[in-house]
Specification:
This is General stress protein. The chain is α+β, with helices and mostly antiparallel strands and about 120 residues long. It has one domain. It is about 50% helix and about 15% strand. Strands 1-2-4-3 form a four-stranded antiparallel beta sheet, with helices on both faces. The protein starts with a strand and ends with a strand.
Length: about 120
């Protein structure tokens, strides 16, 4: 499922290779490193893909101080849903994407650059 909302675009992918290809495709269409995020249920896998694709991780800038601190006390699923909503998706969309992550998939999200 691809989701193109008012704020962000997301694509569910089967693996890291496809995620890197999607990051490259987004870069070729005008997105910058700062606009693109990779999310995986496995934090180590996520880090490897982020490093290989030279892209962004969801952090303090996206979630805000309260969200980042709250994530220290959340389950990984709750943390992922929080990350996804901080990038402009609804709670229902975040639930859908988190279930896809539970299945071992990877999500590439691109925030639309501010005009």
């Amino acid at each position: 499922m691809d989701s193109i909302g008012a704020q962000s675009y997301a694509k569910v992918l089967e693996n890291g290779v496809q995620a890197i290809e999607e990051v490259n495709r987004l870069r070729n269409s005008g997105y910058t490193r700062e606009d693109i995020y990779v999310i995986s249920h496995d934090e180590d896998r996520e880090g490897r893909i982020v490093d290989a694709a030279d892209t962004n991780e969801v952090g303090l800038k996206e979630e805000g101080l309260f969200g980042a601190i709250a994530n220290m006390f959340r389950s990984r699923g709750d943390e992922l849903r929080s990350m996804i909503t901080s990038l402009g998706f609804t709670e229902a969309e975040a639930d859908f994407y988190e279930k896809e992550l539970d299945l071992g998939k990877v999500i590439v999200i691109a925030k639309k650059p501010s005009a």
